[in-house]
Amino acid sequence: MGNEFVVNKSLKKKSIKDNIPIILILTVSAFLNIFMIWKLGFANKYYAAGVYSMGENLHAFFFNSLDSVGFITIDKPPLGFWIQVMFAKLFGFNGTALILPQSIASVVSVYLLYRIIRKRFSKGAGLVAAAILALTPIFVAVARNNTIDGILILLLILASQQALVATEKSSMKHLVLAGVFIGLGFNVKMLQAFVIVPAIYLTYLIFAKQKLIKRIFICALSAIIMLAISLSWVVIVDMIPEEYRPYIGSSDDNSAINLVIGHNGLSRIFNVRNNPSGDNNTNNTLPNKQNINPENMSNNKLTQDNLDRDAMSNKKPPLPNTKNNVGDGQMPMKPPINYVPNKGRAGGETGEEGIFRLYNEQNAGQISWFVLPAILTCILIIWLVLKNKFNFNPKSIALLYFALCFIPIFIYFSYSSGIAHRYYYATLAPFLAGLVAIGYYYLVNAKMYWIPTVFIPSCLAQLYIQYLYKDWFDFLIPISIIIFVVAIVIMIVAIIKKAKKSILLAMLCALFILPFMWSITPMIYNDNSQLPIAGPELVKQNDKFDTELDISGLIDYLNENRNDATYLAMTTSSMSMGAELILQSGEAVMALGGFNGSDNTLTLDEFIEMINNNDVRYAVIRNNNKNSNMEILNWITRKCEKIVPIEYEKTWSNYSVYKLN
Predict the structure, then answer these.
(1) What is the pLDDT of residue 166?
(2) I want to staple 48 with a disulfide (CB 3.0 to 4.6 A). Which of 42, 151, 501, 623 is the partner?
(3) Where are the alpha helices (DSSP H) in 170-248?
(4) 616, 287 in Cβ contact below 8 A?
(5) What is the per-residue pLDDT for 531?
(6) What is the chain's alpha carbon radius of gyration, rounded to the nearest angstrom?
(7) pTM for the model
(8) Do residues 67 and 590 lie in contact, with contact meaning Cβ atoms separated by under 8 Å?
């Protein structure tokens, strides 16, 4: 009994010792992803306003509404934001509660990727995968933001885990589970979740040990279940009459399926939209109201004709004075350094299409530190196939699977001309990390002279990336050169002495330095960004949506004069004061044009009827606004009374307030 206790104690100590490396990596990941997130504010205020509104009632919660009444939805499906609502209910509504789900999901993703690679290759390979993912700068940036990419990435890794097990065991159950996780991912960011679907089913069709007809049947069953889960919310929403639900934000025809195909589909690939001109939709109906026939409006109600009056004919109380206040210690917006706008592109961030897009000045530091080793691993696959060394075993299955995930995503990011933001690159990170880790495993088992042939080009690629940002910490390049040279010397000595472990350790330590420097920037510079990024742009750039306006005077005025109107005010869009008003007032605000003003939600007659029904009494309109609802905005500016504040300050120089009746 005593000997058994000693053995168990010894095994426990050995187990703890074996797990120290992954514990350290997870600790670093948690530190990078979580530390100081309480200083980030609400980050993306558009989504934060939606989460607040969703927490106010079940109607807004189910439909993913931007406002608590249910005028218009945000431009994504609801699952990721439902999770944020639950965190807000547990910890109170604040920026930390909204960001924390993505931070936790990202740490879990690092651990799951480690388990996937370790099980099929080696502990060392698993650690390499975990470290690369944890230190990918854009992965850290999205983990510290309330955009829901961190949750999506976790679901994609869970789907990958099930897909690999399904293929190894020829298991229908696990392939169905992979489809379930993809379906849940679809309800986080729609078609972005489908980027690994071809890899899942191709890998199963190639490697599963079943008759072809059975493999096809199992893939079809999994795909049907995946699609059923994916489209569940979309179909339910579209089945509900338009007058009983919010307008579907960023869609062209007030339908969720159009949001899938258009704004979150083709527009991400080809920079197209079904209704780019913002022409009036023929099927628009008033959200949450019965269909309106303007001809039946009562004579004693407000109409377009009887509102035809001089906008300034009556003197009204002035708006309280407002101040320009930048909150939470954030710096005013300054021009970024080393940033070249994407000419002619919808996203304005990613640069011209082409095979080298991920190595341009906008993108390289975000994701590309290990892209070259990943590409070299793909070349290794071709070599294995040509040499007939590609065996049907878990290693080959995982190698092909990660390559089938990496290559299409890499091509998409390189050549797509649609709406693109750099934080989308985080989706590539786990598959890039897994592929490089697999390449590391094969290097361990290769002849030692192969290691410098991979390491030296990787060093040169990293130096090139850092050179693109040479004005930021200019000492990093000479220090990196010294470290890389020392590592090469260690390799040469180790090759002579046949000490392969020393070679690999020197290689890894050297290659992780620059990515680590980039990964700490979101934490150091408190990136509170509408569009999360990492790197030197954060030194002088605060996102233009981050400035905290003191609009308490405006809110007080609107509350005192709204006369129990349903909405505190109407704004032209969420980003033109809509989200800010929701977050600071806690009241429902009508964002007429959705996120950026492009949604054609109402006709003029419908808007007038809302005024008659006391749904809205005031409009806060950005001056020189270009909006798809210009008929309504022109009517407001020509026919309604402009409220003049005591004194315009810089904060208010771009906005005007109108009384609508």
Answers:
(1) 97
(2) 42
(3) 172-189, 197-207, 212-230, 232-239
(4) no
(5) 87
(6) 28
(7) 0.86
(8) yes
